[in-house]
Specification:
The complex is a heterodimer of chains A (about 260) and B (about 375).
Chain A: E1 6-17, E2 20-31, E3 35-39, H1 46-53, E4 61-66, E5 69-70, H2 76-84, E6 86-89, H3 101-112, H4 117-130, H5 146-157, E7 164-168, H6 176-193, E8 196-200, H7 204-210, E9 213-218, E10 223-227, H8 230-236, H9 239-252
Parallel strand pairs in A: 3-8, 3-9, 6-7, 7-8
Antiparallel strand pairs in A: 1-2, 1-4, 4-5, 9-10
Chain B: E1 4-10, E2 13-22, H1 39-44, E3 50-61, H2 63-78, E4 82-84, H3 92-101, H4 116-149, H5 157-167, H6 172-196, H7 202-241, H8 244-250, H9 255-292, H10 298-308, H11 311-337, H12 343-374
Parallel strand pairs in B: 2-3, 3-4
Antiparallel strand pairs in B: 1-2
Helix pairs in contact in B: 2-3, 4-9, 5-9, 6-7, 6-9, 7-9, 7-10, 7-11, 7-12, 9-11, 11-12
Classes of the chains: A alpha/beta (about 260), B alpha/beta (about 375).
């Protein structure tokens, strides 16, 4: 049964790349208002799973539910409606390079609303200031740094005030201060706007700062080996999860060197 | 002194002793892995259980030596031997252990390059898949057009306008140049033959009819496939590489509506318009040759052109152009949308777009010509 407050849940999902199975037997529930972390080592299929969740690639097997709707078996109309209520911050930003930052944020608004250009511009400016890019409205993506592109990507993800926001490696390539700021922003979004946040990351500082729930994908067994609050997993989780959560943490503090 | 390997077997231990300078500079002709140490050769040795590496006599070393040891160690492992690196001096042992710590993954090595027959087989087997993709794509575009004409597909007006401008107005100079010259060439070549019969005046109608009926549309089509079709493939292809297409899908915006539809509509409208323009430019080219070189009076030239021109020819030309517009835009957008995620894939997509659309134009021209001939139009 799908819990009543489930935002997104999966049933026995298999993620494959061509004929190569990367992960299988994934069953978990992301509750409304959760900050849900998908963690695991490099190459374990985190990003591929994210693509399945956000509706870009169909799973090889299993179902993804948005609320009670079986996403991949829903009619296209309904799928598009669901995707409109989700936002994605891609790893590299994936901004539309032939548009300025303001136009990037404005595009979904132009597409889905009847707001006047001036109102849309005001909304775009606000979303850009939220991520610390006030004053960069008329810059093109090629004119700003990698970290700024990611933040602009977040501003665009927030354009339609989505119910669920996906982050693919949000802090990769950001300096520690910006990364911490981003964590703060994620918490803020959840607390004030009630967004559900799904984050793919292996950044331990972020995991412990923001996570309320998580799932751990293991590259060797090709399935999820643990789920729950990472703080709990640190105490009671299986060995490889504890190793994942402590090894790096020790290294962060310079203890292992 | 030369870098060298010395291999001895002591009871169940295979001792591999390296000596001499083992560095990139010193290594000239000696093979990195001696023939005696391939996994086949090792497997043929009896009773060997361990391979031990020694490097006490090595005078200088870098990763070349370790690469060599690593290759031997992997071969030995494959033959079922244990690897002993404990006798290696300096940091060699730990470093080699590190390289050997993770066994070769199953996703690690690629399939071998397929042979000639295998390639033919693979390409043949790929056909049904490609056909399905093309049919899917054309179906998507058709649905998208249906949505557009029933007012339910919104493609950004600004993008559509850009496409109209790019494949219309911006193409005018090159279309002018090429069709004017084509008119000149047609007039010249035909005049050489017609002169024999003293019938130079018919240069006018020959240039006029052939430009309007088929040469104008074909020339415009070929110019547009090189100019616009290639740019469609490159633009959409780079958007694919940069995940920009995924970003559209992520907002529930259909990339077919948003990227493909404006381009298809743009070319379907602009190719016929450009063709009309090319017809006029081509006739102007013929006119120049006729009046300046063949001493035909302007009035006679125009008169002869109009005498043999039929409205039907114009319609035939426009039909060609309309079909070409679809072929070019569909080829360009299809290749862009199916583009792989790397830089060379964009290049391949662009090439394929141009080649496919030119072949498509030639094939479509023959089909239309045959149909019109059978229908006696």
């Amino acid at each position: 049964m799908i819990p009543a407050n489930s935002a997104v849940s999966t049933r026995d999902v298999t993620v494959a790349y061509g004929s190569r199975v990367i992960q299988s037997g994934l069953t978990f529930t992301i509750e409304k208002g959760d900050i849900f972390i998908i963690m695991g080592g490099s190459g374990c299929g985190k990003s591929s799973l994210l693509r399945v969740l956000m509706g870009l690639t169909p799973p090889a097997k299993g179902s993804v539910f948005y609320g009670k709707t079986d996403f991949w078996n829903a009619p296209e109309k309904e799928r598009e409606a669901i995707m409109r209520r989700t936002g994605v911050m891609f790893q590299s930003g994936a901004l539309w390079t032939s548009r300025t930052l303001a136009e990037n944020v404005a595009l979904p608004l132009e597409y889905y609303t009847d707001l006047s250009p001036r109102d849309i511009r005001a909304i775009a400016s606000f979303k850009l200031s939220l991520v610390g890019l006030a004053g960069f409205e008329d810059f093109y993506p090629s004119e700003i740094s990698g970290g700024m592109k990611k933040r602009a990507g977040l501003a665009r993800a927030l354009a339609l005030d989505p119910e669920v926001v996906y982050f693919d490696e949000p802090s990769a390539g950001l300096d520690p201060v910006s990364a911490a700021r981003l964590d703060e922003l994620i918490l803020q979004l959840r607390d004030t706007l009630g967004m559900t946040v799904v984050v793919v990351t292996h950044e331990l500082a972020s995991i412990f700062a923001i996570a309320s729930n998580s799932v751990f994908l293991d590259a060797k067994t090709k399935t999820m080996t643990a789920s729950g609050d990472p703080h709990e997993l640190l105490r009671h989780g299986p060995d490889e999860v504890v190793e994942f959560l402590t090894r790096g943490k020790g290294r962060d503090r310079g203890e292992n060197q | 002194m030369q870098p060298a390997f010395d291999i001895q077997q002591e009871r169940d231990t295979l001792i591999v002793r390296a000596s001499g300078p083992w560095s990139r500079q010193a290594l000239t002709s000696s093979p990195l892995v001696p023939d005696a140490m391939t996994s086949k050769a090792i497997a043929a040795l009896r009773d060997a259980k361990t391979v031990r590496f020694l490097a006490d006599d090595v005078t200088a070393w870098d990763s070349v030596l370790l690469s060599s040891f690593n290759a031997v160690a992997q071969a030995a492992r494959a033959a079922g031997l244990a690897v002993d690196t404990s006798a290696l001096p300096g940091g060699m042992g730990p470093m080699l252990d590190m390289a050997l710590a993770v066994p070769p993954g199953n996703g690690g090595s690629r399939k071998e390059e397929p042979g000639f027959l295998e390639t033919i087989g693979e390409k043949t087997l790929a056909w049904p898949g490609i056909t399905k993709n093309v049919v899917d794509f054309v179906g998507d575009v058709a649905m998208s057009m249906a949505r557009f004409f029933s007012g339910r597909a919104s493609c950004s007006p600004r993008d559509t306008w850009n496409v109209f401008r790019e494949c219309g107005v911006d193409a005018l100079p090159i279309v002018t140049l090429t069709s004017l010259l084509l008119g000149l060439i047609l007039a010249f070549v035909s005049s050489m033959q017609l002169k024999l019969f003293g019938a130079e005046i018919y240069v006018a109608s020959l240039v006029g009819v052939s430009m309007v009926r088929v040469m104008g549309p074909v020339l415009t089509g070929i110019v547009l496939s090189g100019r616009t079709g290639a740019s469609f493939a490159a633009v959409i292809g780079s958007m694919q590489v940069n995940e920009e297409v995924d970003a559209l899908t992520g907002f529930g915006i259909s990339p077919t509506d948003f990227l493909v539809l404006p381009r298809v509509l743009g070319l379907a409208v602009m190719t016929p318009l450009l063709t009309l323009y090319a017809d006029v430019a081509g006739i102007a080219g013929g006119f120049l040759v006729g009046v300046l070189m063949l001493d035909i009076s302007p009035a006679a030239y125009i008169g002869n052109t109009l005498q043999f021109m039929k409205l039907g020819y114009v319609w035939t030309g426009l039909l060609h152009a309309f079909v070409f517009g679809f072929i070019i835009s569909l080829c360009g957008c299809y290749q862009g949308m199916r583009c792989g995620r790397n830089a060379s894939a964009v290049g391949r997509a662009t090439t394929a777009a141009v080649v496919n659309s030119i072949v498509g134009i030639i094939v479509a021209t023959s089909v239309i010509t045959i149909i019109l001939t059978v229908l006696d139009l």
